[in-house]
Design goal:
By secondary structure, the protein is an alpha+beta fold. The protein has ten helices and six strands; from the N terminus they run H-E-H-H-H-E-E-H-H-E-H-H-E-E-H-H.
Length: 437
Amino acid sequence: MTLASIARIALLAGLAATAPHARAQAPDTLRLDAVLGALYADNPALQAARLDARALARRGDQVGALPDPTASVMVAPYPILTARGTQRSQWRVEQMLPWPGTLGLRRDAADAAAEVARIGADVTALDLAQRATRAYADLVRTQQAAEIVRSFQARLDAFAEAAAVRYEVGRGPQGAILQVQLERQRLAERLIDLAQQRDRAVQSLARVLDRPGLTVSDRVVTPTPALPTDLDLDALALSLRPEIAQAQARIAQAEADVALARAAYRPDLGVGVVYTDVAPADAPPTATGRDALGLMASVRIPLGRDRIRAGVDEARLRQQAAEARLQATQTAVQADVADALSDARRAAETVALYETTLLPQSLTTVESALAGYTTGTVDFLAFLDAERARFQIQLGLVDARARLLDAAAALARAVGLTTPDSLPRSGGALAPSPQDR
């Protein structure tokens, strides 16, 4: 057996050992939708925001109800002589009645405030979903990068065996073995760094999910985000972003506050019943000894006109501020969409460059270098450089895919959606990568 045959057998055996192990094994996977489902169910910050909104929703029933009636009793320790006889006690029940429409305005203002809080919970959910997706993308990146590093380590073992065979028969330099050992050391250090990055990603996910001590042993799967091609994302974002709806709810609340402040010019009315307990007596001559019943009415007169006018001015200014914030929010939403769409398209172009150009070229270069090395026309260092280049391109593709997922999540957040998968598509979607086919 020739030296070239021995080296080729060692290399091919090592490369075969590092081939993907039967994807038919279907390892347990942790998917992004499962992560987001746990987030929506368990995150305490999101639950607190929703509970606050539910609590505020009960305020309308409180402020929209009539005030409680007032009951009073007067007992005379000394007899009060009246024309009907001696008055012993007097009982009153009075009910205040706000000007018609005032209670409805109070309810409207309270309901608008509750709607602002409810939409605020939706904003919190979108922010948490983006944080969870970013942590998930880091998990995907570190896991796949570690797999590529381990695969390269296994190939280096095959390279070391082939280099040792050549060196033992005097056909290869000892420096080749040293280069392989140095490369293996660098890969070991990179694995340590990737493990630290993975731990940080897991902890970020644990914070979002509120699961201290979270461990992720399953294989995480890279979603294939689809970017819209010819949709009007600005109009879609303006209709979907909860911040827009929240600003509109604040305007509705401010309008109700203005109407309520103007209602302060109207008087409140009061009606009541008075019952007088009269003792039987012979004097004065007009005494009948019968109890008396009377009706009463009262009016709260709004005399503090300057105070009321100041309240109306304050409510109007707050309404104008709410309208200005809506305009600012619309501008910010459009800018967010433009920035996120640009970043997502650049990330998609980078992934396409790696998948269609750089990775195929690196594979072709490695095959050519392997053929030349086994026939002795290419030295070991040149072959190792080709393998190292392919390794770096594979890592670059992993990073590019993670950036694409992160950018797609940012675009979904800018549009007002929870996940990149929910982005609408028109025309077509990004083709699945070879790894995911």
